[in-house]
Amino acid sequence: MKIRDIDFGDFPVFLAPMEDVTDSSFRLACKEFGADLVYTEFVSADALIRNVSRTEQKLVILSQERPVAVQIYGKDVNSMAEAAKIAEQSQPDILDINYGCPVKKIASKGAGAGLLRDIPKMLEITENVVKAVKLPVTVKTRLGWDENSKIITDLALQLQDCGIEALTIHGRTRSQMYLGTADWTLIGEVKNNPQIKIPIIGNGDIASADSARNAFDIYGIDALMVGRASIGCPWIFAEIKNFLDNKNNFKNPTNSEKKEILKTLILKSIERLNDERKGIVHFRRHIAATPLFKGIPNFKPTRIAMLRAQTVKELFDLIDEVQL
Predict the structure, then answer these.
(1) Which residues belong to the active site?
(2) By the number of CB atoms within 10 A of the CB, which of 20, 23, 27, 55 ranks highest?
(3) Torsion angles phi and psi, residue 257, rounded to 5
C-alpha cells in the first residue's frame, strides 16, 4: 500500500492521532513496536496561525519516527489553508485533515466531525488545503453525523475528487461518539467501490491481532488504524504485526518488560513537560487504560493509588509491587 511515494508494504498498521496521547515519546514507542505510520496530536489551525507555543510544539518531529503525519483541524477555509502551509514547514511526510473528532467543544463549533453537517464547506476546505501544500493530503472522518445521515459512500468519492491521496474512515457516526460498536460494513462498501482509486484506511474497535486480521480479510482495506487500544499499550503494534505478517520480527515484550516500557514513558513525559507532577498527571490516562493491569483480583485500591501518585518514586513503587 502506498501514499504517493511512501510504500507501507503489506498489511500496514497506523497509530491514530489522539489529543494528549500521541506526543513524540509515545509515537516513538509505537514505532519501535511496528507502527508503520504515526500521527501527531491534532493541531488547531487557528492556534497555529496565532503562534500558540503549545500548538507549535506539536509540530516537533524526530527523524526516528518517520514516516509521520501532522493532522490539522479547523472550520475556516482560509485559516486551514494557511495552517497547512505552516504545518508543511515542519516537514511531515503527510498532512491529514481531521473531519472526525466528535468532541463537543470542536464539533459544535463546526470543526472536526462538525463539518459532516456542512459538506460543501468540508469540500472547499479540502480543495484549498490540497492546493496550498506540496505534501500528500489525506482525510480522517466518520460515517456521517448520525444514524440518519451515513453519507460516507458518496462523501468518499467527493473527497477523492478534491485531490486527497488516502481516506481514513472511523466506523461510527459523530452522534455515537465512541459508544456502541464500529460498523465496518460501510468502510468495506467504500473500499470495494470500483470508483475509489485512493487507499482506504479502516478505524474503529481494532483492539487485538484477531480484529486486525478480520478487518483486512473481510473488508479488504488497504491499511488499518489503531486508536484507543494503543493507550498504555504501545506493544499492541508488535502483537498485530507479528500476527499479520510472519516476515516481521517485532519483539513481543514480557510483562516485566511492559512495566519497564510504562516507566520509561513516564520519565519521558516528565522530561518533555519539565515538571514531575505534570508529567505524571499527563500519563495517568495510560495507567488507567493499560491492559497490563486488567483482570488482576482486588486491584482497584492499587489502581486508585497509581492514579493519585504525585512522585516518580511513589508511582514506580506501586508498579513494581504489581504481581503479574
Answers:
(1) 101
(2) 27
(3) -70, -35
